Structure formats: C-alpha cells, structure tokens
Amino acid sequence: MPDKMNAQKKDFYRKLLLKLKSQILGDIKSMSDENEGEQGDKGDVSGHAMHMADVATDMYDREFNLSLASNDREILQRIDAALDRIEKGIYGLCMKSGKKISETRLKAIPYAEYCLEIQEEMDRKGAR
Fold first, then answer.
1. FRET partner for 105 with CA separation of 20 to 30 A, picked from 9, 29, 116, 121?
2. pTM of the predicted model, to two decimals?
C-alpha cells in the first residue's frame, strides 16, 4: 500500500483545489453576467435591425461561452470529487491502479484522478 499523504500536503492541495474552484466559479459568473448583458442589447437604438453577421457573431460568442461554462462545470465536479478524496484519505492515489499520483502531476492538475501511466493508457483507448 502506498504511503499516505501527510496532513501538511493534504492542506496544501485542499487550499489549491479551493482556490481553483473559486476562480472557476468567478469565471462562470462573469460569463453569465456577460450573456445577460448581451441579452438586453439586442436592439439597435437607431431603429435599424442588426446585420446578419452581427447576429451570427453574437450567437457564436454565446455558444462558445456555454461550451466553456460546461467544461468549467465538469472541472468543478472533479474538484469536488478530489476534495472528497482528501477527506476520505485517498487523495493522490490513482483510482484505477492505486499507485501514487506524482506530486508534479497533482500540482499541475490537482483534481487528477489517475496516475500518468493510466491516464495515457485511457487517452490511447479514447476513454475520458
């Protein structure tokens, strides 16, 4: 069985995850506020209809923001799962192999669920 993570490291990663979560929530709120602001700007004050290219650009921007928000929500779920693993004492262990996830990987992707070896294998197979 791999070594358990000490309390100081758990606290470091918990803070890192909470900071990342806060940043993502801020990004989602900002995108939501932008979309709400754009909703109110649909009409041109001059009385002329919006040009088709402007409408298409607005639609593209809205779809792009929705895609980003969807990705952010997925990351938030993974962050919450990582915080849960910290509480259960299994954070930093690969969910498939049980091996330790390298600290370099955890610092880069603190919500990582798999060690690099397993993640690469899953990527090759087209899984998650």
1. 29
2. 0.72
Task: Tell me how far apart the alpha carbons of residues 94 and 100 are, in angstroms, rounded to a whole number.
Answer: 6
Q: What is the pLDDT of residues 92-110, one digit of tens each?
A: 999 999 999 999 999 999 9
Write out pLDDT tens, residues 47-105.
456 677 777 777 777 777 667 767 888 999 999 999 999 999 999 999 999 999 999 99
Rg of the chain in Å (alpha carbons)? 21
82 touches 74 (CB < 8 A): no
Render the burial of 53-68: b for 16+ CB within 10 Å, e for the rest.
eeeeeeeeeeeebeee
CATH code of domain 7-40+51-125: 1.20.120.910
